[in-house]
Amino acid sequence: MNSWTVNDKPTLASPSPGEEPAPTRLHLKLVIALEPLLAVLLIVVDLVKVVMLGLPRLASEIYSIFVPRAKKNVRGQLAVITGGGNGLGRALAHQLAARGARLVLVDIDLAAAERVCEELKQEHGVSAWAYRVDVSRYEDCRQLAEHIERDGCGPVDILVNNAGLILFGFINECSVERAATVVDVNVKSHIWMTKVFLDGMIERKRGHIVGVSSMSGMYAFPWGGIYSATKFAVCGLMASLSEQLRIQGHSKYVKTTCVNPYYVATRKDVVEFLQKPRFSPLTVEQAGREIAAGILREDVVVTVPRLFGVFTRLML
Ligand SMILES: NC(=O)c1ccc[n+]([C@@H]2O[C@H](COP(=O)([O-])OP(=O)(O)OC[C@H]3O[C@@H](n4cnc5c(N)ncnc54)[C@H](O)[C@@H]3O)[C@@H](O)[C@H]2O)c1
User: Fold this and answer.
1) Would residue 227 show up in a list of annotated catalytic residues for this protein?
2) Model's pTM, two decimal places?
3) Number of H helices and number of E strands within the chain?
């Protein structure tokens, strides 16, 4: 039987001290020589990706702007909007009420929700109910479902998870308490409200769940790490929910929409903050109109402004 000893193994010429072994040098030379070639190849692959995937997407988005899909009829349907007492929630409530939907406005600020309910009744002649709910608490959300049933508002057809806290600032500058509250309101509320209302929608074979995320949920702005993290979470949750409904066979009658607006002039602090990077926010009315249109078209993802989203997706 042949036996090998260390000395029997074929050896390479030993490098002189400080010199690299010959195969490593060869490997390095090869990599350096191929580097420009590799860079060109990667650029070509990127270009092919843009042409093959991006351009058809861009074309279909532009087509759908000029030839929009029919909007669904929400007359008589019941829409629940969290954070309906102010900003985007209020604007969406007006948009849906103008099309004959009945509204349940949920807000931690009951007086604000009640004020908006009065506006809806007077301006659009629809029924509207206000409830004080902290949507970051599961028990509050569960009780809301009981109250809606008890008060005879009817089954929920559209759930808009809109309530959220905007937080600008660097992660290390934010207090633990504030960060925890933002995560609770911006993320947990979507999970709790969806848990509470999804089964009924599936049973009735009718429903629509809308999650309001943000452009910060598609593109991470450095001055809002915690906020951005919560909005990426909402996008993830909505994408997963959409797939869940598809594989369970419910996606024909229970729809999902993830909404990603650019900055909107809903609050003084938002407007003031944006003066520094010289961003001009959208008006609340414009954002409300575009978001409502996307919901009524049952788009799976709505970006506001619409083309901004297409370009952002192309760049990612
Ligand atoms: N304003 C923007 O620039 C902008 C941009 C993109 C996305 N968004 C998102 O749109 C949504 C609405 O934002 P907005 O600018 O209209 O905010 P807003 O502050 O004007 O309104 C939010 C509403 O939610 C309510 N709310 C807060 N915490 C709550 C809780 N725990 N339970 C129930 N209600 C609660 C508030 O009382 C308020 O009425 C948020 O999710 C926000 O992240 C806003």
Assistant:
1) yes
2) 0.85
3) 11, 7
